[in-house]
Specification:
- The chain has 409 residues and is an alpha/beta fold.
- 37% of the residues lie in helices and 18% in strands.
- The protein has 13 helices and 14 strands.
- The chain has helices at 17-29, 53-70, 105-113, 119-130, 150-163, 176-187, 197-213, 233-242, 268-274, 315-333, 350-358, 371-378, 400-404, and strands at residues 45-48, 73-78, 87-93, 139-144, 167-173, 224-228, 250-254, 289-292, 299-304, 310-313, 340-345, 364-367, 383-387, 393-397.
- It has a five-stranded mixed β-sheet, with helices on both faces. The protein has a five-stranded mixed β-sheet with strand order 7-6-8-9-10, sandwiched between helices.
- A hairpin with a 5-residue loop joins strand 13 (383-387) and strand 14.
- Helix 2 (53-70) runs antiparallel to helix 3.
- It is globular, with a radius of gyration of 23 Å.
- Residues 6-14 and 405-409 have low confidence and may be disordered.
């Protein structure tokens, strides 16, 4: 077996002598069970938490190689999102705070499924194929959700990072969006925001306070929300966010993790799939309610009417509201050169597509299913809106800076 970093000509540079013993010890500790195949997809790796130790250990090593290749900090999030509590997963975050470049998904899959005695060769193959400078420093930041398996799996991740001599920062328990934010801030040297959890709250809260102050004439608006936290990390972090909102929003959090299992009879996926209110939700009519998922990166709204009928405002409707609002701003500002658009998949509600096109007067693009397809297409617009029906989405923008010249915060 070749040593890690050894080329066919015989030169060797990694692991460096001071790291070689750590590499050997770690690979012996985090061994791969036989006949366990797993594939890296849009959501990263996801399966039973008890089957992931060797996978996450190896993703620690891959994150080091990715960091060396990009000469930037890479993020790793340990979570299984809306899956049951006994599941877990892992996904890498690229320097700009976005998902791992899809060409690296095959490297992740190959590395995770290589036998223990093929591991060094698999790592060397990535190094050779991409011409990675193994002497380049590497930095990885990582976080986890609240699942019982997440902490021990984070230890396996740390061992993988240390095995290849990478440096790291463990941010403990965070939502997935918070980890993405921290990666972006770290690599922008603070230009995007402060690379701290407090910086995340401050940035969003400042925007909310400014938006709230700019709204006039909404006499029917009541700043109250009932939030289903899915018994996950989103509930914990929302409590911290509220401290920054200057009392402008009252949020009553239930399924906050103090009792009950993660995502069990609650959470955004449960509400969307079952088309009913989650466990613990108030049954009064007309209350504005929302649900997170287990890692806090999905959001759906719902309410019950006077007849007790359930009504869901899913990602399609959220995208419609955003498109309507942004479209109005663009027309008011008369900056018609801005390209705005909504990106949907074939599974989107046809009525929402028709409304966005014909009533909101915003173009709609259709792409294959998967967040990576939605996100890449949205980036082709100056302001691109996308939301999956399950509540997973965002607004991708390079054009808001121009809009702010007309509607300054």
């Amino acid at each position: 077996m070749m040593q890690l970093g050894q080329q066919e000509g015989g030169s060797s540079s990694v692991p460096l002598p001071q790291h070689r013993q750590a590499f050997l010890l770690a690979t012996q500790t985090h061994r791969k069970p036989p006949d366990k195949f797993i594939e890296y997809g849009t959501a990263g790796f996801r399966t039973r938490g008890s089957d992931l130790d060797h996978v996450i250990f190896r993703m620690g090593m891959l994150a080091v190689l990715r960091s060396k290749a990009k000469m930037a900090t890479i993020g790793v999030m340990i979570t299984a999102s809306h899956n049951p509590e006994d599941d877990n997963g892992v996904k890498l975050v690229d320097p700009n705070g976005e998902m791992l470049e899809n060409t690296w998904e095959v490297h992740a899959t190959t590395l995770a499924n290589s036998s223990d005695d093929q591991l060094v060769e698999a790592l060397n193959a990535v190094i050779r194929l991409l011409g990675i400078d193994v002497l380049q420093p590497a930095n990885v930041i990582y976080a986890r959700d609240t699942r019982p398996s997440s902490h021990p799996l984070s230890e396996a991740l740390k061992a993988g990072i240390e095995a290849l001599g990478g440096s790291y920062v463990d941010y403990g328990i965070l939502t997935t969006p918070q980890l993405h934010y921290l990666v972006r801030c770290t690599n922008s040297a603070g230009a995007y925001g402060k690379a701290t959890e407090a910086g995340y709250y401050e940035k969003l809260a400042t925007a909310f306070v400014h938006l709230n102050s700019s709204v006039d004439g909404c006499t029917a608006y009541r700043p109250q929300l009932w939030l289903d936290g899915a018994n996950g990390v989103g509930a914990l972090k929302m409590k911290e966010m509220l401290q920054h909102l200057q009392g402008l929003l009252s949020v009553n959090i239930f399924n906050d993790g103090s009792s009950g299992k993660l995502n069990h009879l609650c959470g955004a996926d449960f509400v969307k799939v079952q088309q009913c209110i989650p466990l613990g939700a108030p049954k009064d009519s007309g209350l504005r309610c929302a649900s997170f998922d287990g890692d806090g990166d999905r959001l759906v709204y719902f309410y019950s009417d006077q007849n007790g009928c359930f009504h869901l405002l899913d990602g399609d409707k959220i995208a419609t509201l955003m498109a309507n609002y942004i479209g109005d701003l663009v027309r008011q500002a008369e900056v018609l050169s801005l390209k705005i658009g909504v990106v949907q998949t074939a599974y989107a509600n046809g009525a929402s597509t028709d409304y966005i096109n014909n009533a909101a007067k915003v173009p709609v693009a259709c792409v294959p299913t998967g967040v990576k397809h939605l996100h890449h297409r949205a980036q082709e617009f100056d302001i691109g809106v996308y939301f999956e029906a399950n509540g997973h989405g965002t607004v991708s923008s390079t054009g808001f800076l121009l809009l702010l010249c007309y509607f300054p915060l």
